[in-house]
Amino acid sequence: MSRRFALWLLPIALLAPALARAQGASETAVEAAFLAKFGAYVTWPGGGGPIVICAVGRDVLGDALDRATAGQQIDGRGLVVRKLDSVDRNSGCTIAYIAGSPRQSVSAALAALRSAPVLTVTDSRWSSARGMIHFQIANDRVRFHIDDKAAAESGLGISSKLLALALSVRPRSGR
Amino acid sequence: MIERSQRVPQFAAALMAVFLLLLGVIVVTQADRVYRSEQAQRADIRAQVLAASVTAAVDFSDLEAAREAIAPFRVDPATRVIAIYDQSGRLLTGYGLHGEKLSPRLPGTAVPSTMSRGVAPVVSGGKRIGTIYLLTDIEPLSRRLSRYALISVLAVMAALIVLILGVAQAALRRANAELQDTNAELIQQMAQREKAENELRQVQKMESIGQLTGGIAHDFNNMLAIVIGSLDIAERRFASNPERARTAIAHALEGANRAASLTKRLLAFARRSPLQPQPIDPNQMVSNMSELLRRTLGEGISIQTVLAGGLWRTHADPGQLENAILNLCVNARDAMEGNGRLTIETLNAHLDDDYAARHIGVAAGQYSAIVISDNGPGMPADVIERAFEPFFTTKSVGKGTGLGLAQVYGFVRQSGGHVRIYSEVGQGTAVKIYLPRYFGPAEVAAAAEAPAELPRGRPGELILVVEDEDQVRRMSVDALQELGYDVLEAPGGEDALALVQTRPDIRLLFTDVVMPDINGRQLADKARTLRPELPVLYTTGYTRNAVVHNGVVDSDVFFIPKPFTVEQLARKMRAVLDA
Ligand SMILES: Nc1ncnc2c1ncn2[C@@H]1O[C@H](COP(=O)(O)OP(=O)(O)OP(=O)(O)O)[C@@H](O)[C@H]1O
Ligand SMILES: [Mg+2]
């Protein structure tokens, strides 16, 4: 019994270094990769056109976001990265990763985008104010909370597949 | 030949059996293939379901979530491997169950026969980001085959049945062929036997024909000897001793008469006698005959008559019946050698269906019977059997002709009756004549007493005699002239008709029936268109012709059978002319 147990543990053991490397490299890189993937699990009203990912405020991602999105497409839509000091509902963002800046705090940015069809993403490392998706490191892994209620108010739909991975979900009203 | 034809069904049956077995195998393998492809399809569908549910987990490298998502499939005991590989085919996570190992790289398409494989891509945002790989147990071959056991058993049984039937059929054919052979043999034997019987019958027939012709020749010869001898004497003594010549002629006449009566009896047996049936009271006939019998049988024979009261009348030719009774009485006398007791009895008899069924040619019904019995020596069975045959006699040559009982038989049969001999050696003989009961009106039996004088022609009674044979015509003409009639003669129909036209004083047409140009009946019909009231008297030796139907003379026709005596002719002429 113990031998067979050992046998199926073996592949996990082999995988472990790879996972450790991914996590250890940089949480920032992981977050950038996630940002590049969220588009596949979210639906926007209107839709169409490239997915514009805005890094708002301090430049915490560096070129990680550019690398993660380079040459990628989601269901035929191209990915475009923009870096902005501040944001409002006319900035043309599809996804806004808000790190905050002296000019516009995270909360201010979130308020500016309230009920606009923009997926707002925040990070527990930079603020306690939460966007629709709020990154948090748990057990050395990048995880996230989801505010489905806010998403619904902005007319966004978040796939249940994504909801299933969240640490917590604030359900949309009526759910 | 038979051997080969027997093998055909056996061969066919074997072929059929093989075919059935093959069919069974095909059905089973086909069913198995369908089952396997269904299983593979199911595995694919499961893989697809899994792929959909682990998309996000794979995409976001959340292996924990991925493991959780695929965990429920472990519950299925048939599952051997569930694994998720990344887009480059490296193992991400999974389970190997029941001792199955997880391959670190995505395995190829080769699968063990006891398992089926399901593969589905994990797709996110239109991009393949991984692969679900899954192996599930399918039923082992033995289990699968046992599911087809019913089909297999049915196929094997069908094959067996066909084989057995084939063998049975062959056996049946063989038996049939044997049966046919024996049957053919039997038919051949029957044919042979029938042929032998026919030959025997032919021989017997030839024997009796020989007897018949021999008998006729013998008797005729005797009679001709008398006639020729007597006429020879008459010719030579004609001038010198007229008295002697006259007796010689009388002898000749007697011989000729006997010859005539012989042919008459022959005709009677052949049932060709022209009968003139009339209502008869058999009691009266027997009574009328008693004097004749007493004289014929002699003093040694005592005659007893037992006549039934209320006896039914019958319908028959009285002359022939008289003849029959006489023949039977003479036979009795001969048997008793002149001494003994003869009984003539009459009675009503009802022959029932049972009796009719047991005796060929007898119709059930009411009969009046005449039984003539004697206390003579009786007849052995073989004599009874042949007694009715013409010319069968136990008497010495010249004494018996063997035609007596033949006449009785012929007459009775022709009259619709039935005759039987009852006899036992040492006890005596009884011969029973059954004649059908007559229901018609009574008629006065005319031929009772004959006047002694010959009735003669009256002056001016002109008779036309038509006859193609000169000698016979000559004789008729002579006889009529002797009886005092005026006579015209014609050798055929045409001359006769010419005479009928030119001589309205002809009182009677006396014509032969059978003539070469037109027959007597046609002649009479034509003559009657000229002279409707002209009476016609036919004569013939035959019976099967226009005048006599089935041996019975038409009632409106006058008829005198050939040969006839002057006396018979005289009476008939008067009867017709005075009618
Ligand atoms: N009453 C009888 N008793 C014993 N035998 C008889 C008697 N009647 C006939 N038979 C036998 O049957 C035979 C045939 O008889 P059938 O009258 O036909 O011929 P037949 O008497 O011999 O000759 P025919 O009658 O011409 O003189 C006789 O020869 C005789 O043997
Ligand atoms: Mg006789």
TrEMBL record, chain A:
Keywords attached to this entry: Signal
Signal peptide: 1-22
Name the record gives this protein: DUF4154 domain-containing protein
InterPro entries: YfiR/HmsC-like (IPR025293)
Any Pfam family matching the protein: DUF4154
UniProt KW Signal keyword: yes
Automatic annotation (TrEMBL), chain B:
Superkingdom, natural source: Bacteria
Sequence ranges assigned to domain Histidine kinase in this UniProt record: 215-439
Enzyme class: transferase
Entry's EC annotation: 2.7.13.3
SMART domains: HATPase_c, HisKA, REC
Transmembrane segments: 148-168
GO molecular function: phosphorelay sensor kinase activity
Coiled-coil residue spans: 165-206
Keyword Ubl conjugation appears in the UniProt entry: no
Entry protein name: histidine kinase
One Pfam family named in its UniProt record: CHASE8
Keyword annotations of the record: Coiled coil, Membrane, Phosphoprotein, Transmembrane, Transmembrane helix
Domain Response regulatory: 462-577
Catalytic activity: ATP + protein L-histidine = ADP + protein N-phospho-L-histidine
Keyword Coiled coil: yes
CDD domains on file: HATPase_CckA-like
Modified residues (4-aspartylphosphate): 512
